[in-house]
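Our platform keeps sequence and structure together, in a single record for each protein. Such a record has a labelled line for the sequence and another for the backbone structure tokens. Nothing more is needed to write down the fold, since each code stands for a local backbone conformation. For reference, a complete record is included directly beneath this paragraph:
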Amino acid sequence: MRDTFRAFAPTNLPVTHCSLLGLQGQVPQWLTDPTALTQIYASLCTAQVQPPSLPPMDAGTCQVTYLLGLSQARALQEQSVAAKTLQQRHKNARELADWLQSTNIGRTLHSCLPEDIMVYLTTHWLPRHAGTTTKSGHKLAAPGSLSGVKSSLATELEQLG
């Protein structure tokens, strides 16, 4: 971005001392001049788009490359997390998937709504994971456990897309 601005910047304007856009503490005055910015914007909008430097892939090669890339990205994500954490995330996601299937609402991990997860947590997960007994005799899940499963599900669902 910085190089793009410099390429279209008027060269005769003085530089003022400021920190913006990572320009080593120096910002050209034209960045704060509305007329200069309008000229730069107009130049950027009318600049010719360069053709891609790589030849287009055929459909088969594209699909294979894309699937391989997704597989490698997934492997990289899994390597960045401790095995025990990854297993717990998958376990929590499987439990949610099983519950979704048992409800017959027609949703899966890919299509569930935030409301589905709230209902799952309050009606299924909390009663089955209560480990602490209160003074009144009620069993409750520890707040940290609930927070952990929410975080685990959020990560797993985010990775599913």
Notes: The first strand starts at residue 15 and ends at 17.
